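Regression test attached.
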Amino acid sequence: MCLQLPVLLLAALFFFSACNKKQGTDFDSHESKVPTVQGTKPTIKESEQLAAQIESELILFAQRIISGALPDSLSDNKKWSQFSNRFINSSEQSRNVKASVFEIRHEGNIVQTVARIEMKARLKNQNYFGLITKLKSSWSKNEDEQLKVLEIGDPEQTVLNESPVLWFSDETDRLTAKEPTFTEHLSRGLDFWLKRIESIHGIDAFINNGMALGDFDGDGRDDIYVCQPGGLPNRLFLHQADNTILEAPKKTGANYLDHTSSALFIDIDNDGDQDLTLATPSGIVLLENDKYQSFIERGILQTDEVDCHSLSATDFDMDGNLDLLITFALGSRSLDDDSSFRFDDARDGGSNQLFRGDGEWSFSEVTALCGLSEANDRHSLAASWHDYDLDGDPDLYIANDYGQNQLYRNDVRDGSRFFSEIANEIGIEDRGAGMSVSWADYNRDGLPDLYVGNMYSNAGKRITGLSGFMPKNKELTKHYRRFAKGNTLFKQEKNGGFSDSGSATTMGRWAWSSVFADLNNDGWEDLIVANGYISGPRPDDL
Amino acid sequence: MPLGNSGIGPGLDGSDPARQLQEYVRRGASFSGSEAHVVFNNEKGSFKNVSSITGLDSKDDGRSVCFTDWDLDGDLDIWISNRNGPQIRFFQNSNPSDGHGINIHLSGNSCNRDAIGARVILKVRDNLPQTRTVTAGSGFLAQSSKTLHFGLAKEDVIEEIEILWPNNKAQIISNIVPGNYHIEQGSDPVEFKVRSNEIEKSPNPFQETFNDRTFLSQRLPLVAFFGRPPEAKDKPLLICLTVEDCKICAAQKKEWEVSPPTGVHLQLISESTLALSDPEKLRLIQLIYDHFFDVSEREIPTPISFLIDQKNRLCAIYRGHIDQNLLLEDCINININGSQLRSRSVPFSGIWASKRISSARPLDFVEDLLDADLLDPAANYINKEINSLKEDELFPMLLKRLEALKSDRSTP
């Protein structure tokens, strides 16, 4: 069985059974049971247990702010009172709070934390209101294992939002109401099917499956193709005139049962209709669109590894035929001692492959020929083509888990296309847990910029920030810290290099697709980050 | 498994954290779950977290994000795929403060027909240019619409659109107003029109419903654990485990009292009785239930039934109430194999690209028994299934492991 590893080992490193987050006691009593802490310096596990308890206390604190019941100790605090007042008479059911401790320090019996509090509610005037703020707090623990709040700091770097309407409405039910397949199959998540489909078919707890939009039936509307793990059929839904969706008839031939990580609608044969390609463990399945009615299988491009992951299409040599790139996360290479898995710099991934389109449904494997076999050994989770240097040909950015990313510049060498890997040179290696790539000119200066999806982990930030974390290896600590930092927005400078544009867009939580799009039609491309790793049937969260 | 030798030494508590993590998730634990999606609004080049007012801050385990102006009203709508259910969600853009938007669909002539790689620069008066590129594959495992969308705020006069086709030919378009357009390389824009469908757009006449049973593609010999009563003779055996205080169990029993299942020999086992008489068998049932799936120690729904063929091999697992017709059909099909069996073993119909059909490996089940420290049942199983097991090339290693575990146990 091909087991897709958990995307981020860092989280595994931060694996503690510490998160039996118990509900704290009454905030005003300032006391709560804490584990016995031996000596002055707690272990990481003890520190994590404290963080979990302080988080619970801060949730209670936030609940008091949002419900207007400010703790006595803060009744004179103008800033917190002001926030609390904003929520007066807000609808109780709409209130939502979240607290995340992302920094923790221990000095003797004093614990100091920095946390983020997120609150939202529907106000009396029906407006939607949200608030995100950071706060410092300090706590003491005594020999009776009691946790006591010493100080709650002022809110800092607060972000406020208020709007009479939500920008988007969830219309899933309306769009899918007429399609029984949705109820029978897609309304249920992976966890349901895991217990019902043998893993031998290509389904496992860590599997990821993508989605593609394209106009299959030539009516001018985008249809939707939903990829599925092995044993469940991929689904092609046709976009109806009333904007609802109905599944294409069985005879269309789109219901592949092989695990399909990603799919693309592209016109491979340049005949004006949308063909379909699928990334499966058997290789890249090529499907020709036959008169907008059905698909004809035109072959399977054999790949060197079975863990086909992300498909992208381009015409890198601009001969008019589309080319295909497939990335691999896992490799099957046997590890010798020198190449063993390193969390911060893994070199045991599968080798990505480039297939040049030669027309008439034929493709040539040109990975080595084009220079792409250089350092082609990482866990590549995403790739996107973009002419970043505006020289007229598409370049390639690959986001890798457990290590640095790659930018392959498309050059001409001796009359042929050749890729040079220059991510370090131009400052976008972004060593981390890369999961997503998106290009756009967000600041409208004419130069393409880049947003890379990575993991953001409160636990990771807490633990790597502890003075006792890997004290002997500062360099490695720096890398580990980076792994918990989150997404990176790279702004392209006039000299062709890139600069990290700071912390405003890093906190995308456990980010997957992290992409640019103008969501409010103001001409400036915004960012959306889809996140969340695994919400299992058991609520206890690691 | 690469995580085992991760170069970072053992986990902080001396264990193998990756394996522990995987086991926790298989048992159903959450891990960075129920996180809300995040949206950053671009305010003229600087970003602000506006998640709470977007309606997009759903707590799904989101994966792919695809954009398209689904209803062609000038703004972008979003499809997001999820690990949890519903596996896809549609978010319609309903922002009334929206300005205008323009959609442009390109078709290449002297370049690839999809115009993938084409860059379009839109200029309005007194403002910075906007750039979009036709892309196939971005974000994480996602392909958005190839139709390009530009937000125009309140602007309704577009000064110029410049298209740089993939073969470096430039095309300038002026005198265009907000709307939906199709541009053929070298030609003027034409209004983009949706057509009626040629393809049948009604629900599939043959609707598939999901039955909560797994007709296994692998045949696991179980004679070591479930003997055949003589009265079963040459019929398949249906072993049904019931618990007290279970409405479905009671209803199922009542139904069978009135009309016993045909074609099978029914054996009802009460969990409470079994817990007293043979608690090890309960653990075995859990192991059998988990064996085929990438889960562990998940709660077993009740009643749970196992269909066992005449050769004492497990063929199907039923959760909850059993549909009589389905059971009858399964019994008729109990000896199918190859692609027929593979089709029957998945809940919905479809096409396989892979022609390779995996077969059962009883050895894996013995490994499960050893993992669970059930050494005697493992030895018993090996004894009973020696003929099929010894064909496996890993069989000698399995025996070695069993012996090692046994001697571990006997040394204090």
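Expected vs. actual: identical. Residues 40-191 of chain B form one domain.
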